[in-house]
Structure formats: structure tokens, C-alpha cells
Amino acid sequence: MSRRRQDQLLADLLRRDGWATAGQLADVMGVTPRSIRSYVSAVNARVPVGDAVTSGPAGYRAGPSAHRALDARTEATPRDRLHRIVRVLLNAPSGIDVHDTAAQLHVSDATLDADLARVRSLLAGTELALERDRDVVRLHGSEEAERALLSRLVHDEIEAGSLLPSAVPRVLVDSAIPHTAVAPFKSALVHELQELDYFVNELAITDVLLHIVIAADRVSSGRVLDTESGEHSAPPEVRELGALVGRLCAEHLGISLGAGDRDHLAALLLTRVVTPDRDTTDVARDGIAPPVLDAVRSTVERASHDYGVDLADDAFVLRLALHVQNLQRRIAQQSWSRNPLTRSLKTSYPMIFEIAVAMASGLRERLGVGLHDDEIAYIAMHVGGRLERSRSADTALTATIVCPGYAEMRELLRASVDRSLGTSIEITRVDTRVDPDWETIDTDLVLSTIDPGRSSDRVVRIPPFLTESDVDRIQVAAARRRRARRLTRLRDELSRYFSAEAFLSPLPDAGDEAIIQRLADPLRTADLIDDAYVDRTIARERMSSTAFTEALAVPHALRMTAKRTAISVGVARGSVAWGASRVQVVALVAFSENDRGAFQTVFEQLVEVFSEPESAQRIVRAATSFERFLDELVAVIDG
Predict the structure, then answer these.
(1) Per-residue pLDDT, 277
(2) Do 439 and 566 reside in the same domain of the chain?
(3) Where is the chain membrane-spanning (predicted)?
């Protein structure tokens, strides 16, 4: 039974807020419900209490010991054994004896030889090499490269997003660092960084904390980083932070760091975790290189034009430029920064993430920096912060207050609504009649102190004096209307862009790039796109997977060059591989320049529909033909 499949099941359940049926999990993983039940049994067997996954009438959900089961490691699988061998090599500068190691791992010499071949593959692209002299094998490379490999192993062993400070010592096998010392060290580090007037990025600090613990552990074994030109050649801020890290390591971890280690860890802090608590203009004037600032400004202007959003703000450009300059330094050090919010940003804010991908593409063209999803997610956080105000204004609903009676009472009611709901609801009309013409009221919501005489999902009956529960009811109604408004726009757009000729079921499990080619065929036949558009779609996919939910992938090109907007859809029986994920529906979207305004509606709201597991499964089960697929999609949209 696949350990990887069990871990995938656990990770899926940990990401969900509630229950999932065996059928839903089976569809996502591309297996049978019977296999899901087997995986649940195997996962629960990893922990003494057997409560990693709990079951009930509604299906399965993550239990109290889910994280513990996910972190439970054995050496029964080739992957686990591979990691164990690498750890042994990292801890043995003079090398290991292949016969002794095979005996310790309870495998044959031939099996160990095969594992060593996999170690060589793992080292591809690093500065490390595996050397063998008869029966002795050793790693050859710098100490910094060995630490980077150890960090990579740890990240490979934990589910993305679950690396918390409490997990750092637990995942470092046989570490000399006391487990109980890590959390106090982190608290002291954050406190003192703030005392030095630095902003601290809590999302990135755990990853740097991992590097600090690795460094302290390696130093305790006599493996130190050398500094070529001496401690005092480092910039003043590096020396200052290096001294701080060195002092805290001595106080909390009992390890004395040399100048090389202090400078290295200080550089990690400066490029990943902290920024000076000063005015952004001063920071830019003092430290941002002109080529970086020019590249960021050009990239922002292009994204603003392409996506019709307002990003052209000097303070935003300067903050992003500072981030990009730090990013360049991380790339030079081959030291990437993880973002535990990557998956949720991608699923919940696909349009913002898409703008970030386009900006990452522009930065790659102008500065030669290639980014993965975690780094793109940090750009998305900058973009989201800039767009939050305009997005809030765009989603504000109009409302009419119907309130016959005293003028003073109406004024108090309106003031209460503005005070409690002013950011999400705009009062555009007040009707004082006892018999208003309900048909002429065309606002999104009607807040009425009198009975409208008939039921309507946009009318909220309220008392003249609002209570907290009344505000809650209005917010629920507003959310319902806001979603209905978005999905109505989506339904209108989709009816224009779908066609029976561009529908494929079942979708072949041939890999993402082959599926893109297959779904592009009907659009090419209709002369809507050319081969260059398909190539750009594949290039976009290689930058960052377009599997925005566990059910749906939306491949597309970054430039809107289709002759006419169209969507080619494929529905799988079960699921198909899509990068590192599996999806059930693939919608290849080809947008034209004339439909720029529809991009956000179709792209973001289509993702929203398929982000709800029950809705996604309804559509997938019904999609035996194009007509049934479209009917069920519209039915889901209409609620």
C-alpha cells in the first residue's frame, strides 16, 4: 500500500474544514472508495490511539492525531530509506561503508546500490556529488550545500504549510538541539528584532528558524561555515543581526557560532524575514538598485493595463521593489522562502494570484529571476494588499431603507446601518411610505421595517432600532446577494463561451501538457487560437500550476491574444494528473483582447464554483454529455 497515497489523504483532510465522503476523496485521488477506507485504516495504525482520521455518517475528517500521523516516519518505503541514507551521509564526513549500512537498514547490498543511484539523482542540480572508493561512499561538496540539502529533506518530509516552530526540532532526527529550547529562542529573536526597529514577517520566520537550528546542530558536530574575508567585511546591518543571532544561540541553544555562520544567518534574516521600520521612500532612496526599481515599475504598469486594475502607486512600487531586491539576493544564495499561505491564496484569490504570476513573468523577462509558487504567493500578498480597497468598493451593495414613521427614527436607523455595514452596503434610497411600490425598488437589498407582503431573498425585515443579531442577518443576506450577483454574471458569460465542439469526456490521464494540446485542438480547428497561443499556455503552466482547486485546473496564456474568447472543457472519469496534483475538470480558457473585462468574472467565479466539493461532484457526475454538463453547471450557479 502506497505510503505516499496515505500522506496525500491525510494532507487533503487537513486542508478541509469539515467532513468528506469516501467518494469525494476517491474522486480527488483517482482511486476507489474501498482504497480510501484502506488508507484510513493504515493511517490510523500509525498512532497509538488510532484517531488520525475520524469517521462518521458524513464521511471522514482529520482527527486529533492527524499531524502526528503525517510526521510519523518509518524506513519501510524506498523514499523513507533514501532520506535515511542521505542523513547518514551528511553526518559522516569520512563516508559510510556500504556493507555495514545495508546491514543497518536490513536490506541487501544490491538494494543499497539502487538507493545510492537514487541519491545521485537527488543531488542533480546541487553543488554536491557522491563519491565512491571501493566500499566507502561519501558526499563531496561545501558545508553550505550540505545544509541546503538537509533543509530540502525536511521540507520534503512535511506537508506544505504545516512547518510551525514547534515542528522544527521534531523533524530534525537525532538533533543535538534541545526540543524545548526552540520556541523560547524564536520568541526572544522576534522580540529583539522588533526592539531594533525591524518589521518581522512571521510567515517566513519559521523557515529561517529551521536554518538556524540546522546551523547550530552542524556547529555542535564541528561542521562550521568559513568566512573568506573576515567578519568585519560584512555590512553593518549584517554584523548587527549576526551578533544578535550568535548571542541568542549561545543563551538558548548552548551553541557558539563563528563569524561565517553568524553572517550567513543574518543574511537570511535580512532577505527573508525583516525589513527596516522606516518610511518606504527612505528605504528606496537608501538601498534599492535603479535597475530593480525600473523593472518593477514597468512590470506593475503592464499588469495594471493587462488586468484593468489600479496598481500604479509609488508606495506600492517601492515596497515591491524592496521585496524583489531581497528576492534577488535569495536567488543568488539559492535560498528560497516558503509561504504557508500559498495554497489558500491560490484557491481563495485566484485572480490576485494570476496577476502575481503575470508580474513574476515580467520580472523574469526584465531581471532574469525565475520564481516558484511560494515566492509568487508573496508577490500576491503585496498585490492583494494594494487591491483590497478597490475590491471592497467593487463588492459594495446598494440598499433601500423602507421605514415609515418619524424622521428622527429614520435618521437613527440609517446612521446605525452606516455605522455597522458602511463598508459593504451603500444606502442609495430611503422610502417613507407605508405602501411603497416594491416593483420599482431596484437596489441589491431592501431593509424594511414593514412587511413587504411577499417573500424575497433581497428583502431583510428589520426593527427600527438595530441589534447585533439584525446586523448579522443583513450581512448574511448581503453575502448571499453578492454571490448571486457574481454567479449571474458568470452564467451569462459562460453561455457565450462554451460549445459542444469544445467538450471532451472522458479526459485522458495523459499529463497536463498533453491535455492542454488535446483541449486546444477544437479551438485551433475553429481558428480561434494558434500554436503560439498553446505554447504560451504551456509556458504559463510551467511557471505555476493552474490547478486552483482540488477539482479544477484552468490553463491559459498570460496574453489575451485569442481571436474570440472561448473555453474548451474536459471532464475526467475519476481524476487526471495535473502537475503534482490531480483534478477532475480542465477548462482551457482562450481570451481575446476585446473580452478583457470578462476575464476576472469567468476566471475567478469559475474557480469559486469548483472550490465547493459538493458542487464540483454534482457537475462531474452529471457531465456525461455537453448538454448535461452545461445544465448542471447552470443549476449549481443558480443555487
Answers:
(1) 55
(2) no
(3) none
Residue 233 has pLDDT above 70, yes or no: no
The reply to whether the predicted model has a pTM over 0.70 is no
Distance CA(447)–CA(441), nearest Å, equals: 11
d(CA 30, CA 297): 44
Amino acid letter for position 472: D
Amino acid at 120: R
Overall domain count for the chain: 6
Residue 427's SS3 state is strand
Q: Which helix (H) or strand (E) holds 298?
A: helix 290-307
What lies within 8 Å, CB to CB, of 427 at 6+ separation is 398, 399, 400, 401, 414, 417, 418
Report how far residue 99's alpha carbon sits from residue 102's, in angstroms, rounded to the nearest whole number: 5
- DSSP lists the bridge partners of residue 427 as 399
Let me know if residue 341 belongs to a domain: yes
Question: What's the alpha-carbon Rg for the chain, to the nearest Å?
Answer: 28
Whether 504 and 626 map to the same domain: the answer is yes
Q: Which three cell numbers stand for residue 460?
A: 431583510
Instruction: Answer whether residue 143 shows pLDDT above 70.
Output: yes
Which residues are within 8 A (CB) of 48 and not within 5 positions of it... i.e. 6 or more apart?
none
Give the pLDDT confidence of 165-203 residue by residue, as tens digits.
555 554 555 566 777 788 888 889 988 988 888 877 776
- Flag whether 437 is in a domain: yes
User: Is 491 a member of any domain?
Assistant: no
Edge-to-edge order in the sheet of strand 96-97: 96-97, 136-140, 129-133
